[in-house]
Design brief:
Blueprint (H helix, E strand, L loop, with lengths): L39 E6 L7 H16 L2 E6 L4 H13 L4 E5 L4 H10 L4 E5 L11 E4 L4 H14 L4 E6 L4 H17 L4 E6 L6 H13 L4 E4 L4 H8 L2 E6 L10 E7 L2 H12 L19 E3 L11 H16 L16
Parallel strand pairs: 1-2, 1-3, 3-4, 4-5, 6-7, 6-8, 8-9, 9-10
Antiparallel strand pairs: 10-11
Helix pairs in contact: 4-5, 4-9, 6-7
Amino acid sequence: MTRPAAFLTRRALLGSAAAGALVASAATLTPSPLRADEPLRVAGIYTVPVEQQWVSRIHLAAETAAERGDITYTFTENVSNTDYARVMREYAEAGVQLIVGEVFGVEQEAREVAAEYPNVAFLMGSSFLEDDALPNFAVFDNYIQDAAYLTGLIAGAMTESANIGMVGGFPIPEVNRLMHAFMAGAREVNPEIRFQVAFIGSWFDPPRAKETAFGMIEAGADVMYAERFGVADAAQERGVLAIGNVIDTQPDYPDTVVASAIWHFEPTLDAAIAAVKAGEFVAANYGVYSYMIHGGSSLSPLGTFEGRVPEEIMALVAQREQEILDGTFVVEINDDEPRSGG
């Protein structure tokens, strides 16, 4: 995601995780509902390559929907912020019915385009919530704090130095809540853990993330929280462990990455597709579909670390996961910037 460092605030998040609690405008899109078997025309606009971990999950969900025949899908990647509005207009003019993307660095311009095309649905990664004045503009992000908390339980059991390093992109709410959830899980297992927290000021700068991680490892961290690419490389080279984020990176780091918090964009996209097809798409916070209770996030399999995490910890992980799914345990949401310390 390409988001400026200064973009660190937004309106308050919705309080409920239930899909029925989506706050939505009463206005809906003008077009009549499509036939159930008619594929929806969908376009993706991305500021980074589709291989980048965050965007890759959106791209995968769209390709899956296209393979099912629910949509036709085209996309443009590596779109600069200065070109973003132009590409949005081009897709809208071409008859695309649902545009998916990320507008963190172009909020105002993107919303202006959406206002010009009220018959086009826009589902955009955003640091703001829905705008009732734009009934065709819905927002989302990877709110995977449930899975991040579970990885924290595992990390808390795997650290021997009680020192965990955490490297993030920017201290924006969407990242902060994942870090806090991870930290809460680790502290539940070991209240004495000390955290080293740093942000590299970029969404894709593996060398900088790697160097930052090296510094934390030299300062005693033996488990690294890899919110950004490059951290797992440092952990692998120094022989310490890492926890992944958004995608499962264990296949690339089989002796390093213990577990990952996985984002599944399919529930988010499928809900939007169904709404547009039914003529019921409205301004809403689709971010809640990233919650584990909706299938939007999960803990990756232990894979090469099967049997290496203490059994009692995995029993606790299984218990907490079931409680999250049952709604009897709610991972605390804390969007404040995390700080280093105990």
